Amino acid sequence: MAAAEAAVVSSSLETDTARVPETAGTAAATAATSSATAAAAAVAAAARTGSEATASKAALATKLLSLSGVFAVHKPKGPTSAELLNRLKEKLLAEAGMPSPEWAKRKKQTLKIGHGGTLDSAARGVLVVGIGRGTKMLTSMLSGSKRYTAIGELGKATDTLDSTGKVTEEKPYDKITQEDIEGILQKFTGNIMQVPPLYSALKKDGQRLSTLMKRGEIVEAKPARPVTVYSLSLQKFQPPFFTLDVECGGGFYIRSLVSDIGKASKAL
């Protein structure tokens, strides 16, 4: 823009110079002054742009820092808990005005986010999510009690201990009664020992057991560990299905509970 403006001034002054030669020096000085003014204006414009960019980044940082707390988020069936967090983080950053390319480069530094206990991909329910300073409160969430409604199926076992896995064994269940199941539940109430499922987020040599299993690698079961079941009741019995209401502590696997109940009933 500065070069174009100087050319226009020079052309106009040349016409004046043809009529009044003695003013040529004045015309040259005027052109130089105009060029300097234009250059100064360009520098000022660049400075304003830089200031606006800095202010924009500052405003963005303020927005991101204001995203803080603990929230209850509904997790539908399908996505893993980690996938849901990634989706939520992307939406929050977009809401704060951070462009996707910038978010992709800086997502690890811009916004802290975590959850207070994993829900399986096949499960739906409340996922406790901590954002910003709220992530520091998640430890207390993990140590608190949780309540689940679980549906088990008698007579069938899968490699994942849920309905998404491959069936590995089948047995008859027609002789199992509601009273049988209610009697078995008493054995799984209180402080008990539980073996975590092989398909889980627990790690071996830094890798998730579920990842190793999907690769076809041989994985040994983790040793049984202490867990707590505060309450356990049978809500519905419609063979082969039964519905449980479970309140338990942290580190508890509903899949393992249902599998153990099936084994105890000798109907898997």
TrEMBL record:
Catalytic activity: uridine(55) in tRNA = pseudouridine(55) in tRNA; a uridine in tRNA = a pseudouridine in tRNA; a uridine in mRNA = a pseudouridine in mRNA
Domain of life the protein comes from: Eukaryota
InterPro entries cross-referenced by the UniProt entry: PsdUridine_synth_cat_dom_sf (IPR020103), PsdUridine_synth_N (IPR002501), tRNA_psdUridine_synth_TruB (IPR014780)
Enzyme class (EC, first level): isomerase
Listed GO biological process terms: mRNA processing; mRNA pseudouridine synthesis; tRNA modification
GO molecular function: RNA binding; tRNA pseudouridine(55) synthase activity
Cellular component GO terms, alphabetical: cytosol; nucleus
A Pfam match: TruB_N
Primary subcellular site in the record, as a coarse category: cytoplasm
Sequence ranges assigned to domain Pseudouridine synthase II N-terminal in this UniProt record: 105-254
Keywords for the protein's UniProt record, in alphabetical order: Acetylation, Cytoplasm, Isomerase, mRNA processing, Nucleus, tRNA processing
EC number: 5.4.99.25
Compartments, as annotated in UniProt: Cytoplasm, Cytosol; Nucleus
Role according to the record: Pseudouridine synthase that catalyzes pseudouridylation of mRNAs and tRNAs. Mediates pseudouridylation of mRNAs with the consensus sequence 5'-GUUCNANNC-3', harboring a stem-loop structure. Constitutes the major pseudouridine synthase acting on mRNAs. Also catalyzes pseudouridylation of some tRNAs, including synthesis of pseudouridine(55) from uracil-55, in the psi GC loop of a subset of tRNAs. Promotes the processing of pri-let-7 microRNAs (pri-miRNAs) independently of its RNA pseudouridylate synthase activity.
NCBIfam families named in the record: TruB (TIGR00431)
Family statement: Belongs to the pseudouridine synthase TruB family.
Protein name per UniProt: Pseudouridylate synthase TRUB1
Species, as recorded: Lynx pardinus (Iberian lynx)
